[in-house]
Specification:
Shape: elongated
Number of helices: 1
CATH topology of the largest domain: Immunoglobulin-like
Mean pLDDT: 93
Radius of gyration: 21 Å
CATH class of the largest domain: Mainly Beta
Low-confidence stretches: none
Number of strands: 11
Order of helices and strands: HEEEEEEEEEEE
Largest sheet: 6 strands, mixed
Bound molecules: copper (II) ion
Distance between the termini: 72 Å
Length: about 160
């Protein structure tokens, strides 16, 4: 079978691009340790307000000196609207939603999650710099989406 040389170039280019993209995915997965969320915890989205610890969202200090912050993302606010955590300590954020999918992004950090009804998502961060950080919903969730934010005060 005869394949025209331009066709061969395009086939080579296409195969090459496939290898480049697969390489980028492999690099992100193994070198940058970026993986799909795993170990997600399930929660009944109709009973979030009655399920501990989401019945009393907020910050807890653990025995090892680290912190856990439990958030409920609901149209169009985060509960709690403000938390205070110390600088230099590990804070693990847990978030769920009783209604629709929301975003959970803390500006100037790499904390970037989805708040998905039925699931508890989590991510950890150590705030090195004191100040007030903005927590925003970055997933369009409805007519009041632009007003959906909270504050994290780091002392
Ligand atoms: Cu939103």
């Amino acid at each position: 079978m005869h394949v025209h040389k331009y066709e061969r170039w395009w086939l080579t280019f296409g195969m090459g691009m496939l290898l480049v993209f697969l390489g980028a995915i492999a690099f992100a997965a193994f070198a940058d340790n970026m993986n799909p969320p795993s170990g997600l915890r399930a929660i009944d989205p109709t009973k979030v307000s009655k399920t501990p610890p989401f019945d009393h969202p907020g910050v807890r200090r653990l025995a090892d000196g680290s912190y856990e912050a439990y958030y409920v993302a609901e149209v169009f606010s985060f509960e709690p609207p403000t938390i205070t955590v110390p600088a230099g300590k590990k804070v693990t954020f847990f978030v769920t939603s009783p209604d629709v999918v929301h975003g959970f992004f803390i500006a100037k950090t790499d904390v970037n999650m989805m708040a998905v009804p039925g699931w508890v998502n989590s991510d950890s961060h150590v705030f090195r710099t004191r100040g007030t950080y903005l927590l925003i919903c970055h997933e369009y969730c409805g007519i009041g989406h632009q007003n959906m934010f909270a504050k994290i005060v780091v002392r």
